[in-house]
């Protein structure tokens, strides 16, 4: 047959294999696209944002309070992404801090943390020294008591913690802004401020004690002149 050409057998079998493979790849691609769409719909589904209004409830708020008597089982970023399977330790630590009677043993890290929280939340009223002469007080806000008065120097750590947690007078509550551990860090830093103004000399290093005593000793007056010489007996 002069006018007809037949493709080699190997090339024909290759084309037959390519068509099913192409169909399988197209099906996989379509399936992956569908999975991606489902995942995107799960993350972008209609929802209420915190503080948003809702007509479904009598108070008009979408955010609902936990049922009475409920207690947290887990908390933190990992708890939100693990359905509560992770984060129980954070709840235990928070409860322990809430029930503590005094601040932890001060460490440099604790004091640094307390100082950073103090400068953000407390300094505007209480001042860097804790004497109540903060920037907003100088502009007319009621002056808080000085941390250096005897009443607050003798107050317990728990009293200071409770004042931070619940507020006192015109001072608002900081319980929703500072975690319990941070509140104790602030208490530790307030104690450091008090000690900075009332540290007994005997508690200082010997070299510093000697320097302070030398500064406290009055120098002899140059205007008095030399003492008169004793008269010789005849």
Q: Helix-strand pattern, N to C?
A: HHHHHHHHH
CATH topology of the domain at 103-199: Cytochrome Bc1 Complex, Chain D, domain 2
Structural class: mainly alpha
How much of the polypeptide forms β-strand, as a percent range? under 5%
Radius of gyration using CA atoms only: 37 Å
So what's the CATH class of the domain at 103-199? Mainly Alpha
Q: How would you describe the shape?
A: elongated
CATH architecture label of the domain at 103-199: Orthogonal Bundle
Helix percentage range: 40-55%
Distance between the termini: 166 Å
Low-confidence region ranges:
none
Mean pLDDT across the residues is: 82
How many helices? The count is: 9
Counted beta strands: 0
Q: Biggest β-sheet, characterized?
A: none
CATH superfamily of the domain at 103-199: Cytochrome c-like domain
Briefly summarize what is shown.
By secondary structure, this protein is mostly helical. The protein is built from nine helices and no strands.
Key traits:
elongated; 49% helix; Cytochrome Bc1 Complex, Chain D, domain 2; 0% strand
Topology summary:
Blueprint: H1 9-43, H2 77-81, H3 88-99, H4 108-121, H5 123-126, H6 150-153, H7 157-166, H8 180-198, H9 206-216
Helix pairs in contact: 4-8, 7-8
